[in-house]
Amino acid sequence: MCCAALALAALLEGTPLGALAQDINLPGVSPEGGAAAVDPAAPEGTPVPSAPLPGETMGDAAPTADTTFGERVTGDDAASPKRGRITPFNGAALPVEELPKLDPSGTPPPAPGAIAPSGGVNVLDRMGASLPPLPKEKPFKGKPDDAYGAFQRGYYLTAMELALPRAQKGDPAAQTLVAELFANGLGVPRNTKNAAFWYEQAANAGDPVSMFKFSLMLMEGRDVARDRKRSEELMRDAADLGNGSAQFNYAQLLVSDMPGEKGLKAALPYYEKSAEKGIADAQYALAQIYMNVEGISDDKRATARSWLLRAAAAGFDTAQLDAGIWLIDGLGGDRNLEEGFRWMRLAAQNGNIIAQNRVAHLYINAIGTQPNPVEAGKWALLSLKAGLRDPALEDFMEGLPDEQVAEARKAADLFRPR
Known about the structure:
Elements (H helix, E strand, L loop, with lengths): L36 E2 L8 E2 L20 H6 L71 H7 L3 H13 L3 H13 L7 H13 L3 H13 L7 H13 L3 H14 L3 H16 L3 H13 L5 H4 L2 H10 L3 H13 L7 H13 L3 H13 L7 H13 L5 H9 L2 H13 L4
Antiparallel strand pairs: 1-2
Organism: Xaviernesmea oryzae
InterPro entries: Sel1-like (IPR006597), Sel1_AlgK (IPR050767), TPR-like_helical_dom_sf (IPR011990)
Protein name: Enhanced entry protein
């Protein structure tokens, strides 16, 4: 089967896998009826009115331009109803009991012809893709392998010279090493057909790494004839032999072949083993299953947030986005606004468009951070330019002074994802 499959949440047949990136919507709200406060970016003593709720206007303060700020940013010429000018800074954070939830009601669609926003890479899209590096291996007490030692030090020609004679004699570890050298063009010209040959030899001899790699080739029909049945058999065998990447991918196959909770529960042991080996995708999937699937024991459900944070710490931007949501909304544990903001901002810095939109709202509403109109404007511009329409952010940008809009534009132009 194809490596890129349906999103994990869709396979639940109506059971959502937590607050996924594509399903989050943080309204740009401010406390209703709050007292005027001092804008730190305005001249001393200048009061700034608190913001109305989304959809409300500020009386006659609407700008006279024919198009909204978002249309000017995205180049969308389609007419839309004009909204009021909003300046949402109130100078103080909302009390915890009054904080808005990150309402999972959906994300506005991108403007026609605009670049669709990225919600991060979901676990099924990443199936078969390059995964995060495995954790450090336990100290090796066996006989050193000179070929692998040369490979680890970057002496690839030496590694090939030492491994090839052993590979030709049927040594599966040496066959895997030769396959890796050919697959990546290390010390020799890249030759994927030669790599496929040696992966197959090592897979037939029972090497888990080659079983996993050759299974992917069979699944995709890459340099070998497509063979789904054999691919799944090899993936299962590699998973049962303890290969973390194979465990994650075999879990994905089970979920894809058995949509709904039945498949998730069948896959759960493989997700758990893969997560223990440090595969961030498996850690993220495990957190979502523990939190949302019926019949999960309370002790496992209590660990959902810790697994999500481990996936976030590994650099998985969708996990970072969800970590921010869980911490701010109090999912899987107590609320921690500052930590939630930190994870959300990290996901935004890593290029997640949904997170960039949410960070703008967090700055506007002083949730987990101090209000900052220029930073809010920067993240708003980045998400608007990517085509993620948000009337509340468009109105916010309309209400910023020209000098702050200029600063926000400059900061957005200088931004580069980490």
